[in-house]
Amino acid sequence: MCGIAGFVGRGDQSDLLAMTRALAHRGPDGEGFHIDADLALHLGHRRLAVRDLSGGGQPMWNADATICVVYNGEIYNHEALRSELQAAGHVFATSHSDTEVLIHGYAEWGVDLAARLNGMFAFALFDVARKRLYLARDRFGEKPLYYCARRDLFAFGSELGALVAHRGIDPVPSSLSLHKLFAYGYLPAPHALYEGTSKLPGGHYMTVDLATLEVRTQAYWRFVLDPDEALAARGTDALAEELRALFLEATSRRLVSDVPIGVFLSGGLDSSAILAAAAQSRPAGELRSFTIGFNEPSYDESAFARQVADHIGSDHNQRVLGLDDARDLIPSILSRVDEPTADPSIIPTHVLSAFAREHVTVALSGDGGDELFAGYDPFKALKPAGIYSALVPAPLHQFFRHCADYIPRSTRNMSLDFKVRRTLMGLSQPESAWAPTWMAPLDPQSAHEFFDEPMRPLDVYSEAVDLWETGPASNRVDRLLQFFTIFYLQDDILAKVDRASMMTSLETRAVFLDNDLVDFCCRLPNQFKFRNGQRKFLLKKALEPLLPASIVNRGKKGFGIPVADWMREIPKQPPLSPVAGMNTARMARAWADHRSGREDNRLLLWTWLGLQHTMQSALPKGN
Q1: Which residue in 140, 272, 315, 243 sits closest to 557, CA to CA?
Q2: Which of 492, 517, 552 is the last residue of a domain?
Q3: I want to staple 479 with a disulfide (CB 3.0 to 4.6 A). Which of 60, 71, 276, 473 is the partner?
Q4: 139 and 6 in a common domain
């Protein structure tokens, strides 16, 4: 796991050094550079050594110095690819470096390389003969890749902070991106926070002509649900057995490491399943599990995590996070997140990562399970939402929302009043905007109060609306599955885990995003994911032999923090630095209403707080 950065065109070595310095936390074990003055090409790399500890330095070249790569990630099928390439006549200099597989793979397959990889990655390959860069990002965007493409400059980096460390790129927030940030709670690719910057979407590659700086972007894979109804004829037991086998194999692939490895354990189904699966490949006593607990009982799952760890027999480690801890942590973490998020669970995720990093260098995570198997609450809301939408005339929507305001407010995790208000907020929008509105930091109907130039909700939610209305899914369950997997997973969950863990130089690996497991899920009809109100139906069946029934069947709580309470005290004074295009006075009123208890603005205020810290920490331009 590493950090990469580079550019071609305007700039010099000092810019490259500034960009890689901004990524030092991603790669504390070494650095490397390549500069081609004739092409104005600069490539940089920061290394976190996980595989091939004595070798594997980057930029890495092939034997005849015609291809070089800077790379961030892990390729789990690199041994199989190495064998295939060796059979085709390729001679490797290293014994088991996955980085070298990229070089020989590109020489053999060209731009088709990315489609053959099972892993998480973001890389830039320099093709000397063609005078071009080839950049690619893994299917789901586990590893980040930002870029700026202009007539005089193409620059890229693992984080936005590295990109704007280049003196030619100014950290000026984009008006459209600000709208989308407060509408989604994250920025869906290809949008990035600053003017002129973008994110390469997961499942895409791009080529850059070094002479003309012409950029071409192409999808090599898309998440598309293509249910195979013939699978249903095989029966639940047979499908559960196949799913279990795929899950065990996916876990086993991610246990390969030259450094110590552990498991994030929340006590929920997904992380518990990973620990149980890991114990099928390694002695349980060698496995280390890590949990963060909370003083607030409605958020705390540590007792369930302990139950799972005792059942498996892992070496279990636990810490508790409280309000006093958060006072110091929130500013330091949010100033390093790189791009704001409405997801406050980045705080416990960072604490968990830092805790795990004291013992291991790699940790397995359960990210992706909820998206692939319909694990979120909105799946249960779809049926009543459809009935409500069909029976309640649009003019009455605001009346019912007003009635919901009389429900006593609670700061408990996923309280009834919070769910009701969120649900009604979404249902006041067209069906194609239900999903993002349910998750929105800012009510789309009141967005005009916070922005100088308001946009129509359907324009702000254009990506989600297009997917809902024109995507291949033919029913609401599959449409919601695609929304969560394509947008929320990539640009909220995975981005959060990447930033939170890499701040501590910890590599995380998402078991559920294995290619073979995902391909199976894409063919699986949705009645095996969400059946009669039961979420993760087949996954639970598959895990019954591995886990206690009390863990398999317990409800989902989610990995959050008591942010509604915390935001009444942290920070002492609401941050109200002006943001171009936004109404600071209205935001001040939102803070006051929340702290008085009149309103619950937790997600709005958290997003604003993150934006304030991000803008304040934007790297100054050096010489």
Answers
A1: 272
A2: 552
A3: 473
A4: yes
